[in-house]
Amino acid sequence: MIFITLSVAYFINRYTETKFNISTSILVKDKESAMSGGVEGMIEEMGLFRRSRKKSVENEMGILQSYEIISRTINELEDFTISYFSIGRINTPERYKTSPFKVIIDTTLEQYLGTKIYLTLLNNNEFILDFDNVEIPKKKLFFGEKYISEKFRFTIIKNSEFFTSFEELPDKYYFTFNNLNSLTKLYKSKLSIELNDKKGTILFLASNGVNSFKEADFLNKLGEVYIRYGLEEKNQITQNAIRFIDSQLNEISDSLKIAENELLNFKISNSVVNIEKEGEMIFNQLEKIQNEKIILDIKAKYYNYLLKYIEGKNNFKDIISPSIMGIDDQLLNSLISNLSQYYSEKEILLYSANENTPTVNLINIKIQNTKDALAENVKNLINTTQMSVEDVDKRMSKIDIEMSKLPVTQRELINVQRKFNLSDNIYNYLLEKRAEAGIAQASNIPDNRIIDIARPENAVQISPKKSLNYMIALVIGLLIPLIIIIIIDFLNNKIVERKDIEDKTDIPIIGSIGHNNKDTDLVVNDKPKSSISESFRTLRTNLQYVLRNKESYIISITSSISGEGKTFCAINLGSIIAISNKKTLLVGLDLRKPKLHKDLNIPNDLGMSSFLIGKSNIDDIIIKTPVENLYVIPSGPIPPNPAELIESEKFAEFIKLAKEKFDYIILDTPPVALVTDALLLTKYSDANIFVIRQNFSSKSVVNLVNDLLKNKEILNLSIIINDVQIPSYYGIYGKYNYSYGGYYSYGYGASYGGGYYEDDVKPSKSIFQKFFSIFKFNK
User: How far apart are CA 719 and CA 502, in angstroms?
Assistant: First the structure.
């Protein structure tokens, strides 16, 4: 069995496709590291590039495992579009980047996906195409010849790097146009991401497959796409800011040109160059207040933009930071930051969940509550700004009153100059902010970087696990026989060992008789030095403790069914008693199925039945045997009424006559489970022996014996275990101790006969005994 299981393990290891695990590592920067200094820290402080959320590593893991990122990765890997395989006798390995031919797709037709297209090489220039599960006939083509059908349009060319010659290559291949969505799902399920440790931010990405080069390409491209995605996200914020500033610059540039032309024309037409001293003081006051209004107007525009943004249900990940417009409101910044963070968390969750999950619903509630609070805050800020504008307007009105006292020319010059300066200041302010945003965008670098790229030579084989497979095969090879033995033992309803009897009854076991492999049933006489003869001597000794002191003893021997060896036991028990110089009579009382005469090879013309019907007297039916002091009465011809004959007064007369002539009378009776004859004889018996045969008698026999004793149908009952076959590891005396053991435990307990018996056989050593004997030292 071990050979079989190890052979199975060998074939599994030999022919199972080898799978490899390959990995790469990526360093993810958190918020603190991004703000630690340098250009990024300066940008963060300027507010041009505000992080909308704390960049948790868990979120980055979610982004890496998202369908969007993996889909981008698969779509950028051109070699993933078509898969090539060579067909072997058992395995069909993928020929990733090593196929001897290439398929050039005609992009004007969308190819039919998922179909296996078989290619059989005919020679160095020709091949046959056969399509699986598609009703397209086979076709013979040349390399470079275009194939055109309703579902496919492509050209197959040789790959000179791997196409050596027809004789050296496998002749059968197949290729398939891959469904990139299915590939995305496959690689999404295979990708695993682990954090280096709880305090660190290094992620280990791993994928497994049968081709380590393919898995390495996937992981390296995934890292590249992920880093590019992060940089695009950062640049999006500054691009939004630049677009907003450009829109404001477009509006103010026209006003600035008009104001500039108006100022120039006024000075020319009125021959005025500068504002006079008194007017200059008023102008400076007016310009100062006007600059305040510029800031307020920009804030008001931003607040209105923000309110529109909220009402438009936009994604707050891309919103322009308040800081870029010179707004430093703590509550506003906090609300926008929280809202942006919630949107980012929702985006991460949607990579692996849908809108109706409880977690997403909770985030939606947080988003709505924060938006409501933000809208309320913005409205309050608009009102506050409006009040500030009104205050500025009042202060300007006061200055206008003072300015009205100036000459008309000076007054008009101040107004024109004020319009110009207003537009010019706004324009310069916006240009400054745009320059800052441009610097921020130009200075952007990825937050994350690849530490170690995936290398095919570093791939770890994960399947098949050869050592483990051999170990499992060895264990199974050892367990299967053990389990079979346990099952057989569990299902076996036969008496197997002495304990099967002792556990169920208190009836004494007075002897165990070994298996008879001799060519005679009269073992005691023919093989007196055999172990079986010795077991009958032990039985004879044990009977002395069962029988009371009498001049003559009657011993009845029976069993449950035929074949359990009661006649064999009766013959040899009678013989061993006769050898001890006791005149013994062996009586065959199985009148229905006589067997005693066959075993002793004596005639059965006259016997017990002849005496009981009055045809013969007792002396006529007694036969002398070769064993000294042993006499036999066979059963005789089969009568029609055996039970009635045994119950007759004639049988009682027989018992009386026999006791006068013999010291021991052994009655070989019919089986008790089949007929009642044996029960009729128990009233005459001084000892009743019930024979149970190992591996033959049913375990239910013990219950039968118990019932006979309980119902007092048989008294003074003892048990003999017959046909005991001892495994070599038990020895001749073994577990049943049948030679010097028995009921009264007269056993030596040796592992074999030690030369006492002519049939001694030293038990062979087991494999384990032989193994350990190698290491046994001589004393």
Answer: 11
Spatial strand order in the sheet of 509-514: 509-514, 717-724, 687-693, 553-559, 664-668, 584-588, 630-633, 623-624
**Residue 670 to residue 591: CA distance in whole angstroms:** 8
Q: Give start and end residues of each alpha helix (H) in 191-276.
A: 212-269
When pLDDT is cut at 50, 70 and 90, the band that residue 738 belongs to is: very low
* Residues 342-369: tens digit of each pLDDT: 887 787 777 666 778 888 888 888 888 9
Structure tokens that stand for 511 in this block: 């002897």
Helix (H) or strand (E) holding 59: helix 57-64
Instruction: Name the nearest CA neighbour of 553 among 660, 680, 669, 659.
Output: 659
SS (H, E, C) 646-680: HHCHHHHHHHHHHHHHCCEEEEECCCCCCCCHHHH
Q: What angle do CA 638, 643, 647 make, to 5 degrees?
A: 125
Torsion angle, alpha carbons of 157, 163, 168, 170, to 10: -50
* CA atoms of 559 and 704, how far apart (whole Å): 10
Considering the domain architecture, whether residues 556 and 638 belong to the same structural domain is answered as yes
62-76, 313-327, 623-637, 750-764 — which is least confidently predicted? 750-764
> Residue 415 is inside which H or E element, if any?
helix 408-443
Indicate whether 513 pLDDT > 80: yes
DSSP-assigned states of every residue in 578-640: HHTT--EEEEE---SS--HHHHHT---SSSHHHHHTTSS-HHHH-EE-SSTTEEEE---SPPS
Rounded to 5 degrees, φ, ψ at 756 are -75, -30
**Structural domains in the chain (count):** 3
CA–CA distance, 346 with 366 (Å, rounded to integer): 10
Last residue of a domain, one of 405, 434, 449: 449
For the chain, the C-alpha Rg in angstroms (whole number) is 55
3-class SS letters over 11-30: HHHHHCCCEEEEEEEEECCC
End-to-end CA distance of the chain: 38
pLDDT at 318: 64
Output the six-digit token pair for 285. 């006051």
Query: In terms of domains, do 405 and 544 share one?
Result: no
List the structure tokens of 215: 């898995």
Query: How many beta carbons lie within 10 A of that of residue 32, not counting itself?
Result: 9
Distance (Å, rounded) from C-alpha 761 to C-alpha 51?
A: 91
CA distance 450 to 370: 36
Whether residue 297 sits in one domain with residue 161: no
Q: Is the dihedral of CA 705, 709, 715, 718 positive or negative?
A: positive
Cβ contacts of 63 within 8 Å, gap of 6 or more: 69, 226, 229, 348, 351
Q: Is 410 left (phi over 0), alpha (psi -120 to 50) or beta?
A: alpha
Last residue of a domain, one of 402, 427, 449: 449
**705 is in which domain, residue-wise?**
521-719
Phi, psi (rounded to 5 degrees) for 27: -90, 125
677 occurs within a structural domain: yes
Is the CB of residue 571 less than 8 Å from the CB of residue 536? no
Q: What's the pLDDT at 375?
A: 87
Instruction: Please check whether residue 637 is in contact with residue 592, taking contact to mean a CB–CB distance below 8 angstroms.
Output: no
Q: Which residues of 380-419 are buried (b: 16+ CB within 10 A; e: fewer)?
A: ebbeebeebbeebeebbeebeeebeebeeebbebbbbbbb
Bond from prior residue into 464 cis (ω within 30 degrees of 0)? yes
User: Is 737 within the bounds of a domain?
Assistant: no
Distance CA 591, CA 596 (A): 10
* Residue 283 half-sphere exposure toward CB, CA atoms < 13 A: 21
- pLDDT tens for 619-648 read 999 999 999 999 999 999 999 998 899 889
Per-chain mean pLDDT for the chain: 82
CA dist 207 and 184 (Å) reads: 13
CA distance 735 to 724: 10
